[in-house]
Amino acid sequence: MLQSEQDWRNAVEQSWIVRFPQQHLHTFGSTNIAYYVVTEPIYQELQESTQESVVRTGRVIAERPSIVTPTYALNLDGFSSEAYDYFSHVSRESGPNSPGILYQYRKEIGGMDIVGGVPSEIAHRIAGDLDRRREDMSVVMVGVDEAWDVALLKFIYEFTSSSVAGNVKELAGRGMLEPQGDFGGAPRAAIDAIERMFVKVRQGENPEILKRELDRWGLFEFYQDRFLDLFTRR
Fold first, then answer.
1. Separation of alpha carbons 29 and 22, rounded Å
2. SS3 of 133, please?
3. Which residue in 31, 155, 191, 208 has a CA-CA distance of 20 to 30 Å to 11?
4. What string of H, E and C letters represents the secondary structure of 174-192?
5. E-state strands within 121-185
6. Whole-angstrom distance, CA of residue 139 vs CA of residue 59
7. For 89-145, what is each residue's pLDDT tens digit?
8. Which residue, 97, 70, 111, 96, is CA-closest to 178?
9. pLDDT tens for residues 199-230?
10. Under 8 Å between Cβ of 128 and 11
11. 58 — alpha (psi -120 to 50), left (phi > 0) or beta?
C-alpha cells in the first residue's frame, strides 16, 4: 500500500510497458483490452534461492469516447476540484462550447498466478506469445507488487494520449465537432444526441433524463418549447 506521494512517484517510475496494443482506441465504439501486469512479489527478498513473479490479468474497457464542452464537464459529478478549475479555465480561454473528448474506463480484474522467473523476462515471454497469437488488443506491463494498478493507470494515460489525435481527426471528419450557430455554438454531436433523446422520450423514456442532459449542455433555453410540448402531447 502506498504511504506517501514519493511512494506513488516511485511506483510510476518503476512501472513500464513491455507491449502496447497494436491498435488505438476506437472512436465510434468501446475498446476491450486484455492486460498482463507482472511484478516481483513482496516476499521475494525473504527467499533468495528462487526467483518468482506475480502475473495479474484482467481487462480494461474503454467506453466510446464522448464529446464534451467545458459547460458540460462543469455540470458533471465526480471530478476533483482541480479538474473543475481546469474546466473553468478552458471555458474562459476557449469558450464554454469548445469541444473536447471525455474518455471513461472501467477495470475487470481477472486472475493471479505465481510463476518462476524474473518479472522482465516473464513479461517479454508473455508479449512474445501474444505476438505469435496476434492478440492485437493486449498490453503487457511490469510494475510494483504493492501498487500494481499504478502500472495500469500509467498505461491508460499513455494509451489515451496516443489515441487522441486519431480520434479527433475521425470525429472532425464526420462533422461531429462542428459548432451549431442556432444552438449557441454547441458541437453537432451534442445536438444529434439530444435529438435522439427526444425520440426516446416520445417512446416512453423518463423526460428527466433529457432535461438533465439539456442542462448539462446549457441548451435548455433552445429546447424549452419542444420540451414542454412533450407534456402537452401526453
1. 17
2. coil
3. 31
4. CCCCCEEHHHCCEEHHHHH
5. 138-144, 179-180
6. 10
7. 989 999 999 999 999 999 999 999 999 999 999 999 999 999 999 999 999 999 999
8. 97
9. 999 999 999 999 999 999 999 999 999 999 99
10. no
11. left
Q: Report in angstroms the alpha-carbon separations of 136 from 18, 32, 58, 129, 193.
A: 14, 11, 15, 11, 31
**Per-residue pLDDT tens over the stretch 27-41:** 999 999 999 999 999
Per this entry, what is the length of the chain?
Answer: 234
The pTM for the full model equals 0.83
Give first-to-last CA distance, the chain, whole Å.
Answer: 56
Strand locations in the chain (E)? 16-19, 31-40, 52-62, 66-68, 100-102, 105-116, 138-144, 179-180, 186-187
Enumerate residues 6+ apart whose C-beta is below 8 A from 13: none
**C-alpha cell belonging to residue 10:** 516511485
Identity (one letter) of the amino acid at 86? Y
